[in-house]
Amino acid sequence: MKTLFDEIEIAGMKLKNRFIRSATFDGFSDEHGCPTPSLYAIYEDLARGGVGTIITGLTSVSNTEQLMGRQMAIHDDSFIPGYRIMTDAAHRCGAAIIMQLACHGSQYREDAGVKPIWGPSTVEDIAYKKTAQEMSREEIARMREDFANGAFRAKQAGFDSVQLHAAHGYLLSKFLTPYYNQRSDEYGGSIENRGRALFETYQAVREKVGPDYPVLIKINCEDFMEQGMTFEECRCVCARLAELGIDAIEVSGGSFSSRPNESPARKEEGYFRWHADQLARELPVPVIVVGGNRDYETMTNLIRESAIIAVSLSRPLIRECALIERWKGEDRSRALCVSCNKCFNPKGTSCVFNRE
Ligand SMILES: Cc1cc2nc3c(=O)[nH]c(=O)nc-3n(C[C@H](O)[C@H](O)[C@H](O)COP(=O)(O)O)c2cc1C
Questions:
Q1: What pLDDT is attached to residue 186?
Q2: Full 3-state SS string of 125-187
Q3: What is the distance in A from the centroid of ligand 1 to the CA of 191?
């Protein structure tokens, strides 16, 4: 019978259990995006805390974008030795480590200065109120190359894999969303066209890192907004990525542009499990689910009853970096409350903060 502590394999990566720390921005890099001792400490603590795989916070691949306050970056070879310290620490503690690669586009709060805010079309971001500059074909080609070079550097720095961030309204995700992608060229319109920037980026990455290096993606199952990408469209994108050779898909959903009452977030445990399971059943690719995974028993049932291979967690591991070690022992009480993400709510009774 499947358990959360089974060793699993994804594209040749041996993962010591089915727990993944999903990408979590922590803001502990220096002002240039270089990792710092504080960042190493976070990753080492996570790895010691028992999680099988750690996905880094979103890491900027492009120096044409302004960094988001103390975000990690990998747009230059000079970053490689610093990340080597991080990957060595994770490996010493028995965890695999994956770098999440991203361009943020219009999801940017600060003043971008002279640097452009990229987007598929000139549309104001609903949440961030920044108006993107429509990317030319040359700029899309530059983005592809930036992702490919970032992936190559991550490989050189000892990361076991890279994950393309195509979820939550960041730049690759924006191309998939009709509200933000209003192009009339081959990068806009049908879902095949809106997926093109992502498919080409994946192919550029694959060419650069070779056929055997695992490349993952994080994608929204739905955008949960007016003129957002639908689940049917997500299925088309994932099917194409599977044909192209993607090694695993992490299923998330929504963005800061989502309508709060439409997103299933905060309503139940494992809130994208239905979508993730559908994808896992129809695609020849391992599928991971993230979002509201809190309770050991619920996740065990999820792994047993669905075709999902692994579960990702972010906030529970911010709160308790050694959660997985704890669960390995006797104490399997819940991580965090799915409703408020603050109280421990061990018995699954109603949340102490969000009483309805
Ligand atoms: C502080 C914080 C930072 C995050 N940073 C990222 C990120 O860099 N990349 C990403 O894909 N998701 C990011 N997320 C989203 C998480 O990876 C995850 O999808 C989401 O929090 C749902 O999982 P959870 O319920 O276990 O927290 C972040 C979430 C939090 C709370």
A1: 98
A2: CCCCCCECEECCHHHHHHHHHHHHHHHHHHHHCCCCEEEEEECECCHHHHHHCCCCCCCCCCC
A3: 26
Model-wide pTM > 0.85:
yes
DSSP state of 218: E
Mutate which of 67, 289, 314, 336 for ligand 1? The one with the most ligand atoms within 8 Å of its CB, which is 314
- Which three-class secondary structure state does DSSP give residue 268? coil
> Which residue numbers are catalytic?
170
DSSP string, 292-318: S---HHHHHHHHHHSS--EEEESHHHH
Beta bridge partners of 201: none
Half-sphere exposure of 244 (CA within 13 A, CB side): 24
Q: What is the pLDDT of residue 266?
A: 60
- Please report the atom of ligand 1 found closest to the CA of residue 163: 11
Burial class (CB in 10 A: 0-12, 13-18, 19+), 138: exposed
The mean per-residue pLDDT over the stretch 246-269 comes to 83
CA of 290 to the centre of ligand 1 (A): 9
Range 8-328: architecture per CATH? Alpha-Beta Barrel (3.20)
Residue 181: both structure tokens together = 């992608």
For ligand 1, is residue 252 a contact (CB within 6 Å)? yes
Query: What counts of helices (H) and strands (E) characterise the chain?
Result: 11, 14
- As a whole number, mean pLDDT of residues 181-205 equals 98
End-to-end CA distance of the chain: 37
* C-alpha dihedral sign at 269, 271, 277, 280: negative
